[in-house]
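Researcher: Structure for this, please.
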Amino acid sequence: MSVIYVIFLVVVSVVAAIAATASYLKLNAASRSNLIIKEAEEKAEMARKEKVVQAKEEILQLKMKHEQDAIEKNNRLSQLENRLKQREQQLNQRNDELVKKQKETETLRQNLAVQTETLSVKETSLDKIIREKTEILEKISGMTSEEARNQLVETMKDEARNEAMSYIKDIMDEARITAQGEAKKIVIETIQRTAAEHAIENTVSVFNIESDEIKGRIIGREGRNIRALESLTGVEIIIDDSPDAILLSCFDPIRREVARLSLQKLVTDGRIHPARIEEVVAKTEKQVEQEIIETGKRTVIDLGIHGMHPELMRLIGKMKYRSSYGQNLLHHSMEVARLCANMAAELGLNPKKAKRAGLLHDIGKVAENEADLPHAILGMTLAEKYKEKPDVSNAIGSHHEEVEMTSLLAPIVQVCDAISGARPGARREVVEAYMQRLNKLEELALSYPGVVKTFAIQAGRELRVIVGAEKVSDNDANRISFELSKKIQEEMTYPGQIKITVIRETRAISYAK
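Model: Predicted structure, token format:
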């Protein structure tokens, strides 16, 4: 019983302990839940307060921003209002000024109308006075107002013309003073530095022989030898009564040279017959051709020109046998080349190009085809064909102004060509052409009113014009000299320059008895 009791007690104790524990745990859980709830409520309250504070702050910021925007808008409105007030004041001021000016304009208009009426009255009276004075002057002078006006206009024209001629003369004198010295220096130095020999070639060559026996052998049986020579060389052989001489006539100097050398070889050898003549002429032609090439090469080397085409050098060699107005073409071209080089050096241009253009400027005269073209154009074509520089080709083609000048070399070549040809004794003219040029000069001068006599002197390089002193004044003499020089330049072709001298003199003659 005791054991059961003990067990019962134990069980009761365990149950009581369990119950006590459960009640304790229940109380503890309730207190903890209350504590959690309380903490949660406190946090929620704090969060609510923070949100309220943030909302208040945002509301305060928005209120401040709104107040600031309102202040800015009010400032802008105030500024606009001030501007409008200023603009209104300005407009009012301008309006007042316009009203004032309008009143002044109206006053001026009224004054102008009054003055116009006054001027009209005065003008009417002035016209009346002028008419009266004009009538009085016309009665006194015996001329109408129109005649007096025309006379005044003519007088003013004469004065203006005289003043213009005097002005032109002063300008020309000043230009001569400033330019003549340097120009003379360049030209004289260029000419003095150039030395060349000059030869005169004719269309007839003379072959001297020792006796009439040789003349007969040259003629041959029934003239066979001379006919063979003429047909092979293209030269006309003239055998007349001239002692110890045979004439070789041909316009081609190269053919004349071939004929002369062939005759010389045949006479020296002594064997003269058609077969031998054909053989000698063939050899002589090769010899002359080789001499032409060597002459061209030697000329180019002597002038210091490099890189020239062989065909151009051959044409230069042919110039030795050509002439221009009696002046040997090769010597003339070499002289022009040296003149061009010296003048180009004085002017600061390229002397090598100038020398090249000067040497080739008449190359068209020895061309073998296209003879219907002017020699300047033909020379330019040849220069372009053999790869000469464009400015050199243009200088060749334009030295007679047949094409437009495009470089400074062209006028230098033209001037030096004229200098070489104008040198006294360098060229010969046909007598008829020479006389025609002199007569033309005198006729041009005689066409002017007041000219009494004219004299072309110094081989046509100076024209003396004598005018009547009673018909021509000093100013008219200057005018005639100026206009005559222009007319000669436009209507005539001549080498160098022509000096026009107008002479006006008054002579008083009386006799003592």
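Researcher: Any notable elements?
Model: Residues 195-202 have pLDDT under 50 and may be disordered. The CA atoms of residues 209 and 244 lie 5 Å apart.
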